[in-house]
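Quick review question:
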């Protein structure tokens, strides 16, 4: 996976351009000081959800949505996951796979695409063989960290979050009588992420959101000022058509790293298949060739 990670990193620019050619990419507006326009940083577990699924035919996609990643970069947001099995008899969990989802402390800021609900960057990984021939209860344990300023009133604005890790959990079940494991937005009759496809309240996926009001610079470092708050979404997030097509291509390719794993994530939804590599290379060639 080390070679794959290096390879996908090299293809990031070309693959991102390819995505913008087939979906509306949103460029967030910056303030006069160069900081992103205030708004809400949003993270969502798109799939799997808190449901019971039939055993997947091969790898299970792990899909996450990140809103306002430009704000996340200011906040040095880092998000990781652990795919775990749960034993209710022993009260213990067992890690089946793990890896980073996004690192905005050191990594590039992914582009966002417009959906019917909001503008998101979709981040995709795969379970590989971790769930092969397994039934039972599982969970995605999401750990995340960030740095921001918060007002403690008595002490005023203080920098918080440094060295602090937060955790959220998304449970799901795999059983022979479960529903098909289909990522929202990939259904045959999907409206491709429009607000008309709301999930019922008890089936809404987990998420966290941080509302940013403004920024403060101390000793040359810019910090976001805000508070942990409601996501403000009444509907579940569905993947955009480009992400849907990428996931389908990976799951249909038996030789893909996603189906051979686990072993490591594929950052920013870049797919490690021969098909995606060729598309990304061609897109990059056309793009950079047009600039020369």
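Suggested answer, residue by residue:
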């Amino acid at each position: 996976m080390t070679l794959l990670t290096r390879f996908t990193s090299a293809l990031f620019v070309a693959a991102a351009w390819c995505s913008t050619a087939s979906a509306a990419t949103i460029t967030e507006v910056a303030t006069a000081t160069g900081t992103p326009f205030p708004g809400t940083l949003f993270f969502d577990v798109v799939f799997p959800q808190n449901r019971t699924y039939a055993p997947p035919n091969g790898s299970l996609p792990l899909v996450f949505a990140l809103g306002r990643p430009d704000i996340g970069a200011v906040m040095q947001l880092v998000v990781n996951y652990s795919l775990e099995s749960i034993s209710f008899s022993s009260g213990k969990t067992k890690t089946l796979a793990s890896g980073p989802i996004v690192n905005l402390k050191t990594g590039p800021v992914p582009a966002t695409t417009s959906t019917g609900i909001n503008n998101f960057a979709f981040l995709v990984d795969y379970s590989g063989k971790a769930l092969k021939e397994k039934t039972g209860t599982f969970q995605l344990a999401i750990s995340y960290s960030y740095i921001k300023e918060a007002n403690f009133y008595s002490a005023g604005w203080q920098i918080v979050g440094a060295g602090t890790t937060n955790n959220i959990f998304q449970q799901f079940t795999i059983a022979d009588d479960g529903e098909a494991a289909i990522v929202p937005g990939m259904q045959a009759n999907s409206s491709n992420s429009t607000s008309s496809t709301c999930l019922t309240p008890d089936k809404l996926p987990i998420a966290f959101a941080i509302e940013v009001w403004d920024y403060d610079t101390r000793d040359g470092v810019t910090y976001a000022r805000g508070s942990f708050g409601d996501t403000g979404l009444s509907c579940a997030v569905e993947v955009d058509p480009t992400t849907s097509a990428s996931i389908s291509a990976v799951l249909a390719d038996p030789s893909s790293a996603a189906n051979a794993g686990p072993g490591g994530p594929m950052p920013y939804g870049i797919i490690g298949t021969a098909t995606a590599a060729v598309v990304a290379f061609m897109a990059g060639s056309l793009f950079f060739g047009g600039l020369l």
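Why it works: The chain has one domain: 2-291. Residues 274-291 form the longest helix (18 residues).
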